[in-house]
């Protein structure tokens, strides 16, 4: 999933980081 973040850098790397953080907290 991290790889996708780099590829989706066009959307918003900030959103990707937030998603990763949310996932970490949920796990």
SSE blueprint and pairings:
Blueprint: H1 2-7, H2 9-26
How would you describe this protein?
- The chain is 89% helix and 0% strand.
- By secondary structure, the chain is an all-alpha fold.
- The longest helix is centred in the middle third of the chain and has 18 residues, at 9-26.
- The protein starts with a helix and ends with a helix.
- 0% of the residues are buried.
Secondary-structure element sequence? HH
Q: End-to-end distance, in Å?
A: 15 Å
Shape: elongated
Low-confidence stretches: none
Question: What is the count of β-strands?
Answer: 0
Mean pLDDT over the residues: 74
Sheet/helix structural class:
mainly alpha
The number of helical segments is: 2
Question: In this structure, how is the largest beta sheet organized?
Answer: none
Strand-residue proportion: under 5%
Our Rg estimate from Cα atoms comes to: 9 Å
Helix content: over 70%
Oligomeric state of the chains in view: single chain
Considering the chains and any ligands shown, give keywords for the structure.
single chain, 27 residues, mainly alpha
Brief overview:
The protein has 27 residues and is mostly helical. The chain has two helices and no strands.
